[in-house]
């Protein structure tokens, strides 16, 4: 099997002109922009309808750039939520980005400001776009241009939403439900496999416990309870896998409860 080219070989390989790299990055962002722009519009409308200053929409899109978290922050800010609750909520929702860094090809981005921006703009869409792309096609200019374009769609969408909401004679009734609908869709997407159904049930249990016990701080309490329940589920699952492995006398593949001894003979 031929070995993949080393970084040194990749560096010696001829690269396309910088303008072509930027154009490729803009092309990478087009499909993502179809989904990001409407969400940005929703953010702008939500900011205005929540009675917050219009400039909060571009400020969130530039200063945070975290997709669904920005929509969540609008509701939290409008409700005068304590800063501790906001911080823990944002941390819990965006914690997955910590693991993105392990496989995102940020090493292909030039050191300094370009790499710092690429890490900052490592949203779900950028991760999905570049983590599966062949490394030989990845260049610093291409990735940074693509991520910058994705953020531009979000900022422009927010400004369009602000303009639309300002021009409307009356607020759109029920528009704030857009945030709930977004998270419902994300939840349904996460529970397509049976493996994740227990997590959804644990989330519902955590929410119920928080609403009943501490309704004045239900969001913060639910996040803490859900984290504890997930840790407990992980511990139980890990112990169960070890138990299954020991029952198989250490034979390879016996951690699969559906396997049979004959398969490993």
From TrEMBL:
Membrane spanning residue stretches: 36-57, 69-95, 145-168, 174-191, 220-236
Presence of keyword Hydrolase: no
UniProt membrane topology term: Multi-pass membrane protein
Region annotation Disordered: where it falls in the sequence: 243-265
Main location: membrane
Upper classification of the organism: Bacteria, Bacillati, Actinomycetota, Actinomycetes, Micrococcales
Keywords: Cell membrane, Membrane, Transmembrane, Transmembrane helix, Transport
Name used for this protein in its record: Branched-chain amino acid exporter BrnF
Organism: Leucobacter alluvii
Family (UniProt): Belongs to the AzlC family.
Short name of one Pfam family: AzlC
Location(s), subcellular: Cell membrane
Low complexity bias (residue ranges): 252-265
